[in-house]
Amino acid sequence: MEKFEPVIVAFCCHYCAYTAADMAGSQRLPYPANVKIIRVPCSGKVDALHIIKAFEKGADGVYVAGCLEGDCHFKNGNERAARRIAYVKNYLEEIGIESERLEMVMISAGMGQRFAQTATEITEKIRALGPSPIRTATAL
Amino acid sequence: MITAERKPLEELIEFIRPYKRILLLGCNECVTVCAAGGRKEVGLLASGLQMALLKSGSNIEIRQHTLERQCDPEYVEELVPMLDGAEAIMSMACGCGVQQLAGRFRDKPVFPAVNTKFMGASERQGVWAERCQGCGNCLLGVTGGICPIARCAKQLMNGPCGGSTGGHCEISDDVDCVWQLIWDRLKALGQTERYLDIMPAKDWRPAGGSGPRKIIREDLAE
């Protein structure tokens, strides 16, 4: 069997995690190419539908990266996102997809190191979990 | 609004398992507002069903559409061209919408995707609470605008009962004693004398006690 390379979608807030990704780049910090970044104006913009669609289209893992607690540019978008993630995790379990495939993380704009580390850790976690059951079922 | 909650995915899958092509229908009215069966929920459910079925080795085509109102025949008519090839319909509207579809499309099985709950109001974002039972003879004018029919577990007309403690109902600390609320409100309005009027036993016939209800407006009816 070919080596499994997970597809991971990272919804990154423009004001923090996306800038942190830039910072990681300027610092020449490597992180896995498995992580496909989608820039959003706020983590609170990420809807349950975006996440579910990502899994439907074959993502093995999804994470939403928002600002640190209390630092949201739009007051509390990151808190809303975190509650939404908890809700979608339950829905994923109902569908039969491991909820560990979805995470909410909080990263500030200056944390290039943490961005790279998080991307690496999540990639390794999803690699260990194996392909998403949807991807496996679609391949059959 | 009429509130609803999605049924468990497992139950919905059992409904549609025999079919290859279904139409999943949302409603733009009440169920959209209470985030149970609007366009977004239709999208989420379609993806969820699709993925859950895919996992169990079956593939089904789920077409999605959301009507302005499922409880109105003029909107339901829109569906006629969309039903070609659809073996069944799953509706995310309240029970009224589901029945409207079942009445119009007699040869198609129609399944409810939500459990219709109650007529309620939004307390805050994401929280809806029962406020009206459609009893057919509104008492709000004499109870300070607070309904003992919808909000008292015993539907007492002359409350409170002995189970009211510290403003809470004995069934749960999370439930306010509605008669306490009514008293507080009458006090604030300077209308406490109203509380002394004994309300007669309620006539439940307009509440549905004499069978299904209907409103006919002669000036509008065709």
Q: How is the secondary structure organized here?
A:
The complex is a heterodimer of chains A (140) and B (222).
Chain A: E1 8-13, H1 17-26, E2 35-40, H2 48-56, E3 61-66, H3 77-95, E4 102-106, H4 112-129, H5 133-139
Parallel strand pairs in A: 1-2, 1-3, 3-4
Chain B: E1 2-6, H1 9-16, E2 21-27, H2 30-33, H3 39-55, E3 61-67, H4 73-76, E4 88-91, H5 95-104, E5 110-112, E6 114-124, E7 127-132, H6 148-151, E8 168-169, E9 172-176, H7 178-189, H8 193-196
Parallel strand pairs in B: 2-3, 2-4, 4-5
Antiparallel strand pairs in B: 1-6, 6-7, 8-9
**Which second-level CATH architecture of the largest domain in chain B applies?**
3-Layer(aba) Sandwich
User: Averaged pLDDT of chain B, please?
Assistant: 96
Provide the CATH superfamily of the largest domain in chain B: Response regulator
- What's the CATH class of the largest domain in chain B, please? Alpha Beta
Structural class of chain A: alpha/beta
| Number of separate strands of chain A | 4
Number of domains of chain B: 2
Overall radius of gyration of chain B: 22 Å
Shape by Cα distribution of chain A: globular
How big a fraction of the residues of chain A is strand?
Answer: 15-25%
Residue-averaged pLDDT of chain A, rounded?
96
What's the total count of β strands of chain B? 9
Give the C-level CATH assignment of chain A.
Alpha Beta
Number of helices of chain B: 8
Which homologous superfamily in CATH is the superfamily of chain A?
Lumazine/riboflavin synthase
How far is the first residue's CA from the last residue's CA of chain A?
A: 14 Å
Query: How would you write the strand order of the largest sheet of chain B?
Result: 3-2-4-5
Helix content of chain A: 40-55%
Helix and strand pattern of chain A: EHEHEHEHH
Reported for the largest beta sheet of chain B, the result is: 4 strands, parallel
* Strand neighbour order, sheet with most strands of chain A: 2-1-3-4
